[in-house]
Structure formats: C-alpha cells, structure tokens
Recover the amino acids of this structure.
C-alpha cells in the first residue's frame, strides 16, 4: 500500500473509527459483525463492539430461537471466539438427544403413575372445579341446591345458592 493511501486510511480510522468486520453467518442467514477496539481523535478508547444484522428487519418478526445460543453468547461477550459450524451442529444434535431422552422418561413416568394408581399404591389427584373466585372439590353434584339442606357438620362448599331475587320468602 502506498504512503498516501496509508495516510488516508489512518485519517479515516481517526475520524470515523474502524470499519465493521464480518465474523460469520448462521444457518438462518443472520450476519454477525465486530468493530475492533480503537482510539478516537480525542484519545478516548472505544471497546470492541459486536452486533448482528438480522435477516428479519422488523423487531416484531423475532421469535425465540432465531439466533443460535452460541452466537448470542458471542454477541454478549460470554465467549471470546465466534462459534464454528461444527460446534453449532454438535450442540444442536445434543439438544435433540436431550429432548428425546426427556420424552422417554416422561412416558415411563406416566406409565408408572398409571400402574401405581391402578394398584392403589398412590391416591389419584383430587379433581377441582373453579367456582367463582376459588377452587372447591367437586363432589359429583351437577347443580347447586336452592334451599340449604346441610347442617354445620356436613356442609359442602358450593352445595347451596341463595334463591333468585324474584322468589322471596316474605309473601
């Protein structure tokens, strides 16, 4: 590079800072860049900056998983080196294996619970029905009674409703 070009490049670096460097691209097409650490004209040191140019330019189009976790860790400076394709594929395969193992364990657990319920080793969970603002145990009655029929010792939650306003007892 000739001397005048070197001077122009040095001047541009001093005025505008270094240009962004493409570090890599992920499988979704997002491009990852870095701007190296540099010094401004005033002598201020600007630390390295990392950023992504997403394939979806609209913020509302982002979804969970649009950026691989390895690249996100690099952007957030949790790791020094950008990830390799091999590393991303290896981690993706590992995640799929874990999902499959979790699914298998969950199936086995459900079968074991069903067997224990049938053998009477474990009580089945109570079924509740939401009434108003609280949950109350459901005892199999379809409609609440209009007149109170229970005493204090046998009262069931949700077993009695006050009569409608049109049928008052003061006739």
């Amino acid at each position: 590079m000739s001397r005048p070009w070197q001077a122009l490049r040095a001047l541009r670096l001093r005025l505008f800072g270094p240009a962004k460097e493409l570090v890599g691209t992920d499988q979704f097409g997002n491009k990852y860049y870095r701007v190296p650490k540099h010094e401004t004209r005033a002598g201020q040191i600007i630390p390295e900056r990392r950023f992504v140019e997403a394939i979806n330019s609209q913020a509302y189009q982002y979804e969970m998983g649009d950026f691989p976790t390895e690249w996100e860790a690099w952007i957030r400076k949790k790791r020094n080196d950008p990830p390799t394709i091999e590393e991303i594929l290896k981690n993706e395969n590992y995640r799929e294996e874990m999902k499959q193992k979790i699914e298998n364990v969950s199936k086995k657990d459900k079968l074991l619970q069903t067997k224990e319920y049938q053998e009477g080793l474990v009580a089945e969970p109570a079924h509740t029905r939401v009434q108003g603002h609280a949950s109350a145990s459901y005892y199999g009655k379809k409609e609440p009674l209009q007149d109170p029929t229970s005493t204090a010792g046998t009262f069931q939650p949700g077993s009695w409703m006050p009569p409608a306003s049109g049928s008052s007892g003061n006739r």
